[in-house]
Structures are given as structure tokens and as C-alpha cells.
């Protein structure tokens, strides 16, 4: 059997888009056939039917109404599919045989531009990745078709660097060479959900320079490398071929170097929750959630870019900070500015629609209303004097010529469809006005006809109606047919309860009305196209204005959060010091009850306090403290005020974090493997201007192995001249606290904990000195483990401690046979635990000496006896300061920094009393509760 002509046409069109789902226009529906129909019916939950196609079996088929296509397309694109739109290219009523059809657009995840289904505060990037192995070079290019953004860079190939850049932009689609290594593709897939489009090598080679030179008039292609031109040219060609329209709004070739911005690797972005939370994968709970108080979609996208790409140029940072400060000092003017910004629509994406010829009249009115507010915004800018604000004032184009054109041409409330008329305003075009008068007079005649016919026939229910099939008609119910004067009407249609009639005069007027309406619709569309093309000539001006408005909106947002959250202006330096007084975590403090966040100081530099070893139990706040330091640095380098009482921030070039642990079982990587990979990446790429956060390095393996690795990492960071960078190192290995005094720049800090009986209270305060225990069982109790488990854990711990009381840990590599002396006795790595505690508890020097003598008598142990159990290098341990008086003085200092625990208990008791629901308690419950409260109160 032979295929039907229509199916032959379908297969011919499908041959040009084999990697797409083909939406084939048939009348008022888009139909899908064969495999496309099976995929679409499953993904869109459509009924799968069949159609005779000339073969033995019916072709699988499903369809959707063309007017509802956008929502279906959006669902498919979000799942990674590409859609080819095949339209009828001629009027079916005027054609003979099969209607000519062709693909008018290919919609892919990276080229989707329908603003109704895109996140308004997030760019929709398509990316091109091109590599030349023999030169060890990589080029990356990113474009947003909806806004016209176009950014590109190149670098020597380093997979981690490439992944970091991709994570920064989070593209929805990546164009790659056909022969790109699968390992690279899999590494990208592990980090983001993205669609890959493989292109042949020739696609990146043919006419790339010509395409770039044509698209960007001011770009001199001889100033850029061949690999970069291939990458950018390939992306431009792909977008042109899929969109099948001009791309005038993609007119700025933005080349940047990766080192121009603060580098934050993909793991750190995730750990620090810059734009989305770790758990929910949503904006809420992220730094962006706190900082985004923008009033426009353009500003929202720009602020996201600022967070993704903090600055490293001190002058640029300072300009933003000075602008925020000036806005804060003029808050009454700022309120007016915010009100004006709220009424400005998304000019960037409106310009993209104008360029792609998809804008409608309603959207042009949005553009006009937005432009109307710009002179007012510029007037407000005139009140500010700081450098950045002054530049904005000078560069802000008011676009009043475009406003005048749109105001004169387009109706305030036009039709959404540009081919239904009701678009052009009266007085703009004389011919349009004449057609409108003819159409209006004709409809007036029709309206008067209904009244006159009712009077003549005496039929009160007579009405004049219209439909597209029969045109105008007179409708009379069957019960009144006998009242019609003989020969007055011509029967046209019979309904169940009525008859429809026409008259020669009615058909004559219909011809005049419909003729005028059709001509009016066509003429209005022609004039609309002329207006759109005139506006399109000024795309670059509108984009510059949109960019200025977006940056102003970002600065406004930074001022709002600074005022609302009591942030301070940081002092930006280049002295390799980060000094924060009463710093707070910007996100955590917004989630917990107001005023309950415990602030902390930090002073870290490249010399005497270069690496801070932070000890303390789980849940005490170590990770929060470390994250808040990184976030404060990032906020400062964005140009934002920061959550602190005061801050001096030295500009960092890179931030690395190794916080949290997770298995990557799908890739066959354990927790420890992932941890070591991340640490390796940090040690390879960090510089002496970087900030490193390391949390629990080595915990994924055995205690001895983990401690050894953690120790070695600390040594490497402190001793390697290329590194020696600012580092926060949180650990449960208390042995690492011994490094203070051994390694230059290492200092110990810990989280304050108060023991109340068998319970503990976390004070969330970071104090000088190391912690002496982990409180693991107490934390388990707080987490709600059964009492039986807690009791058993304590028994086991006591047994282990008793059995190991005589164990001594000394470096396993030590070869001497030196006995332990009294001078070594303060290190619990050497001594019997109970005896050592006895020594440390003696305040009187005489008593201390007696205790030491008892200890020496009971513990006559040589180094050889414990060599096999040792962990720590003996020479380093012997250099530790064991002066009891100094240690006692340091401990007293730490205690003075702690909060008043009695006040905490009293406050908790008051809260508990105020929360008692006495009305819902039995008398016995009430007595019991009262007894419990009295008992607790007596202990305070």
C-alpha cells in the first residue's frame, strides 16, 4: 500500500528534525504521529489514537488544539525534549491539493523564550562547549535568547574549572562536539540537569567568523582565538537555525576572563546555598532569598548574577558599597524610587520578543507604560552624587521617542492576537479611521434593524444574530412563525426550536460590514508590523536602559536588606585579613525567632591567625559559623552591607568549602571518596588569597587514618608557600589542637558548651582555646535516642575509658627509649587519664608536685612499650607548652567569655511556665507540673 499524500508530506518534514517531536499543523490542531505520538501521549497524558496512513497498520496519533499549544510545549521542554513547529504556509481555502507546510521554529530547552513559562528572575541559558585536546584548551559560550545576554570565555582545560563555570550559569542545554569524552558529559550530568545536543565538527568550523562578524558589528574577529570563535559561532548558528528569525537583540559580545570574578567551585556553591537550598532545592533558605528585594524581573536576574559572580576588583566593590550607603542616607527618596521601579515591566524580555517578531500589541503597551516611568526614575537619580549613581544618571536613556510612537499608535486595551484587529488607535491612520466608521455604522444599522423588525412583525422575541458560517441572520422561535408577514423573509436554517431567516437588505449590509472589517483587520496588522519594526531599530538603546534599571534595582535591594536586617558597611582591603565583629549568618537569623541568633567574632589573616582549628560537639554551631564567614565575605564582594557590627574584608580570589558528606553511589563513590576528591580539588586550586572552609576532614575513614590525613592537610596548608591561605578547620580530632605552637599561624577555637547535670546547653559562642571532649552521648540524648540506648552507651564509654586508662599515645615513628618525665605529664595523649586529671585539678604548686610524684610512681612506661599505638610525632609533642599556670589563665579567660548559664535556665523556666495550657490539664497533671516547676526553681 502507498502512503497518503498528507503522510508523505509529514515524513518529508520529519526527516529535517529527527531529534525533535514534530507538531504538525492540521486545521485547528497540532498532530503527532508514530514514535512522536507515543512519546507525547505518555508525557502529556493524551489519548493515543490512530489514523489511516496508507500502510497496513494505522499510524499512532495524538493531537492538541493549536491555541493551547504553549502549555503543552512548556511541559515537554521542561522534560528536555525539542519541539519542531510545522505550520500551514498558505491559506487552505485558496490552495489546491495538499496545503504547503514547513517548519517555522524549533523550540529547545535552551532557546525557549515564552516568558509565561520561564522563571522571571532567572536566565534561561544555552551553552556551547568546544574543546581542542591537542592544545589543551577549552572555550565556553553562554547565551540567553529571551534577553540577548551573550558571554564567552576560554581557559586551559581543567575539568573542575569547566564544571565550576557551568554550575555558575546552570544552562538548560549544552551544544557539544560529537566526539566529546563521555566522562566529561557524565561529570556535568552529576551536577546539573541539562539537555545535550551533539553537533558535528564541521558545524563549529563552517563560516563561524562570518556569522560572528555579521551578528556583532563592533567585534574584530582577529582579536580572538580560533577556538573561541568556533565555540561562539557554533552557538549563534544553532540559535539562528532553530529560531528562524533575526536575533538583533543579541548584539553585545561580552568576553570575560574567569579570574575577573570571585571563583566559587560547584561544591561550594551547593554547600553555601547561594541560590537554592540544599534540601528543598528552592530559593527559600538561600542567600538569594535573603538578598532579593528587587522590584523588577530584570533586577532579580541581575542580582542572581551578582551573587553567582562576586567582584574581585576593590574599586568596583567600593563603588557599589558607596551607592548603597547613599541610598540608605536618602530613604524618603528611595521609597519613591521603589514605587517607580514596581511599575516597570521586563523590558529585556519584551525587547527579545520584539526582535523575534513574537511580541503582541498588549506587550507593546507594557513597554510604553514602563518607558513612561523612566523620566521619573532619572529625576530621582539626580539627587544622588556617588560615582556609580552619577554614571547611571548620565547614561539612562529616557526613550521618549519610542514612548511617543507607541502612545500615538497602539490602543490602551488592544486585542491579544495581532490578527484580530482592535490594535491601532484612532487618529493614527486615516484609512483605518474610515474603515472603523463604516464598520460602526453598519453595526448601528444591524442594531436598528432588530427593533424595526420587532415592530413590523409584532414578535418581541425576534433577534438579529451572527456566526461565521451563515453571517448575519434573523432568528424567530417556532411558536411565532405564524406571525411572520408572508414573503418578508428568506428561510436560511432550521433549528430545534427556531428558524433563521435573511433578507436581501441584510445580506447587502453584511457584505459592507464584513468587507470593511476584513480590510480593517488586515490594515491594522500591516500598521502594527510597521510600528514593531520601527521600535526594533532601537533595540540596543532599550537594552542599555534595561541594564541600568536592573543595576539600580539591585542597589535598591541591597539598601533594603541593609536597613531591615541591621547590616554594616564593610571596609574593603587588600591586606589578607578578615576581621568581623559580631558576625551573623544572613539566612539562619531570618529563619529562627528574631533576636535569638548568637553573633560571633572572627579575626583571620595570613600570618599569626592563618588557620583556625575549631573544635566542639555536633549541633553546637561550627558549620553555621564557618558558612557565615564565607557568606559575609561573598556579600561584601558583591558590594552589599553585611550582617555584623563591623567588618574589615580583604578581597579573596577563591572560596572553597568541604562541608557535609554524601555518598555518590550511582557513580560508585563512597562518602570518603567524595570527601577526598573535594579536598584534593581545594589543595590543587587554592592560592594564598583564597578562603578555605574544611569541616570534619577525614571522618569518612578509620580514626587513625582520618586523623593522619587531617593532620597532613593542616600542615600542607600552613607550610606550602603557594597556599598559606585563610582557613577555618572544624574537627572532632582534639589531637589537632596540639598543633597550636607547633605550626605557625595555627590557632585553636571552640564552641562554648555548658554542662547542667547530665545535660548540655549549646551557647553557640566561639571562644579561644580547644574543646576537651565531644559530648557525643549528650548530643545523642538531645536528638531523642531512647534512654536505654543512652544508658548503655555511657556504660560502654566508661568501660572503654577504664580499659584504656593506662594506654599512652606517642609517635609510632619514634625510635628512642626515653622514659616519660613530669614535664610531659600535662598531655593526656601520654598519661593515665585519671592521674593526669588529678594533676591538672591541683591549684597549689606543692600539691601539684605531690600529684606528679604519685603519677610517676604509678606509671613507669618507656616509649618502646607504646610505640605501636602512637599517633603524634614525639618531637612536636615535646615542644608543647605544659605550663599549668598559663593553661589555667587561658581557661579562666575562656570562662569569662561565656554567657551566664543561670540566666539561660531562668529564661527557659519562664518560657515553659508561659506556655502551660492549664485549661487542658487534669487536676493531677496540674499538681505534677507544679511540683516539677518548684523542684527546678529551687536548683536555680
TrEMBL record:
Residues 690-706 form the DNA mismatch repair proteins mutS family domain. The lineage of its organism: Bacteria, Bacillati, Bacillota, Clostridia, Eubacteriales. InterPro entries: DNA_mismatch_repair_MutS, DNA_mismatch_repair_MutS-lik_N, DNA_mismatch_repair_MutS/MSH, DNA_mismatch_repair_MutS_C, DNA_mismatch_repair_MutS_clamp, DNA_mismatch_repair_MutS_core, DNA_mismatch_repair_MutS_N, DNA_mismatch_repair_MutS_sf. It holds the Pfam family MutS_I. HAMAP family: MutS. This protein is involved in the repair of mismatches in DNA. It is possible that it carries out the mismatch recognition step. This protein has a weak ATPase activity. It comes from Clostridium tanneri. ATP binds at residues 616-623. Keywords: ATP-binding, DNA damage, DNA repair, DNA-binding, Nucleotide-binding. This is DNA mismatch repair protein MutS. Gene3D superfamilies: 1.10.1420.10, DNA repair protein MutS, domain I, MutS, connector domain, P-loop containing nucleotide triphosphate hydrolases. Belongs to the DNA mismatch repair MutS family.
